[in-house]
Amino acid sequence: MINEYGQYKPRYGDIEVQKIFDVQGDHYQLMNVGWHGNRRLRGCVLQIDLKNDKIWIQHDGTEIGVANELVEWGVPPEDIVLAYHAPYKRQYTGFAVD
Q1: pTM to 2 decimals?
Q2: Domains identified in the chain and CATH numbers
């Protein structure tokens, strides 16, 4: 998924798309880093962790929603945690709580 989204470079500025893979720690990120004119840009597009046999979406800056895409690919919703929601709100998401 990181590789798929990492193919897309913003149309503006001199932006480098960085794919970060911590395979030992099971942490994965997609970052945009660079300049738009005189303005420095740095931001996380996507951050995913693998924890307790589940996919924890820590940040999702995509338009489509990574969790929905994972479900379309056959990942059961109970294996996906929307970690960017407070723990008490997760029970209402239709995905795993923890």
Answers
A1: 0.89
A2: 2-92 (3.30.310.110)
